[in-house]
Amino acid sequence: MKGISSQSFFLLVALTVLPAITSCSKKVQTGIPVGQFGSLTGAQATFGESSDKGVQLALEEINGSGGVLGQQIRLITRDNQSKPGETSTTVRELITRDKVVALIGEVASGRSLEAAPIAQRSGIPMISPSSTSEKVTEAGDHIFRVCFIDPFQGKVCAKFARGLGVTKAAILTDVSKDYSLGLTKSFRTEFAKGGGVITGEQSYSGGDKDFSAQLTAIKAGNPQVIFLPAYYTEAPLIIRQARQLGITVPFIGGDGWDSPELVAVGGDSVEGCYFSNHFSNQSTDPKVTSFVTSYRKKYGSDPDAISALGYDTLRILADAMKRAGTTDPAKVNAAITITKDFPGVTGKITLDEHRNPNKPAVILQVKNGKFAYVETIAP
Ligand code: PHE
User: Fold this and answer.
1) Ligand 1 pocket residue status of 256, Cβ below 6 Å
2) Contact 334, 347 (CB under 8 A)
3) Among 44, 46, 47, which is best to mutate for testing ligand 1, by the most ligand atoms less than 8 A from CB?
4) Which are the contacts of 219, defined by CB distance < 8 A and separation ≥ 6?
5) 151-277: same fold as 32-148+284-359?
6) Phi, psi for residue 186 in degrees, rounded to 5
7) Is residue 130 lining ligand 1, measured as CB closer than 6 Å?
8) b or e along 32-53 (b: 16 or more beta carbons within 10 Å of the residue's beta carbon)?
9) Does residue 79's CB lie within 6 angstroms of at least one atom of ligand 1?
10) Where are the domains of the chain?
11) Residue 141, SS3?
């Protein structure tokens, strides 16, 4: 190595070898980075799977028709395994490592509540497709949702119950979830308004398996209907145990029942029960039928409400980027804020000053193992 100093030798190595190494290990990423976080595995896996399916369908359609602002959307999806604490980790990674310009997630209110302060502090807009707890968007002006909120959903359930001609209801709440607590609060108030009586209130914690003590107490009050703002992970177990105890009255739930597992686990015991939801795949609205057709073609099954909300979420984000004319998070945030009359498959979406839309709900009934459309209840 005569004639070349060791210093310049290292410089030479650095200039020739290092770029080669970095270009091998780090593929150049193109496209607009958008982050999605959800429960793709774990206790509430059907929530994450359904939401992702809707988002992926929208992604395919948007990118297939030229993308946004001349670029493709590059969706980066991270799984929080339905575990508390994991959402913060995945959201931080999406923001700091993947440099996403916007976030889509979560389905469960508890996990959206975990993510929201991080997105807010980082100045990254976050749109929750399906979290209905009122608190979610209260985290700040960067947090949006495309679904209705629980004060409305609880009211819808109470109104529907009264419409069945009943005056006595019992309530069984999952005290480990803001979602369940919020629904109980609005159901209780609204049911009483119409002269209804709450014959008893009982509670449990997500993950519990034995509900016999609570159900025995509820039975003693002789309710004509039982309000059960549970997730699908507990609802069918609870209803099964209720039938074994001789409770024959219908249960009414919220959107948290929306999963194929409700019927798979609940079987005959859930027949005839009702729940409120965001969407019915039996709608004859041409926007919905065309979405249902594309979804069937891609996945070979019918979309549930969570898929429909996921689909609307990415389309709303893409629309906001187009209107903003840039992917700069602050400008995209401003454009999402003024979303107006967006033609979603889950209804027309206009965000109010609290970044929530005002949309109708549907009541579905379990009939022959399927979710049959009963009626639409307007805000
Ligand atoms: N609304 C529920 C929550 O906020 C999540 C959910 C939405 C479940 C839609 C099913 C269908 O926790």
Assistant:
1) yes
2) no
3) 47
4) 242, 245, 246, 247
5) yes
6) -75, -30
7) yes
8) bbbbbbbbbeeebbbbbbbbbb
9) no
10) 32-148+284-359, 151-277
11) coil
Q: Which residue has the tokens 């409305």?
A: 152
Ligand 1 contact via 305 beta carbon (within 6 Å) = yes
CA distance 178 to 114: 12
Q: pLDDT tens-digit profile of 295-305? A: 999 999 999 99
Confirm or reject: Cβ of 107 under 6 Å from ligand 1. Answer: yes
| Closest residue to atom 11 of ligand 1, CA basis | 255
Q: Which two tokens stand for residue 220?
A: 């003693």
Cis peptide, bond prior to residue 134, ω within 30 of zero: no
Kindly state the average pLDDT of the residues 295-317: 98
CATH class entry, domain 32-148+284-359: alpha beta
Mind listing the pLDDT tens digit for each residue in 194-251?
799 999 999 999 999 999 999 999 999 999 999 999 999 999 999 999 999 999 999 9
95-151 confidence digits (pLDDT tens): 999 999 999 999 999 999 999 999 999 999 999 999 999 999 999 999 999 999 999
The single residue listed with the structure tokens 């409120």 is: 276
Determine the residue type at 207: G
Question: What dotted CATH number matches 151-277?
Answer: 3.40.50.2300
How is residue 239 written in tokens? 């209803």
Residue nearest to atom 8 of ligand 1 (CA): 256
What secondary structure letter does DSSP report for 250?
Answer: P
CA distances from 226 to 35, 123, 167, 187, 353 (A): 39, 42, 11, 11, 34
CB 27 within 8 A of CB 281: no
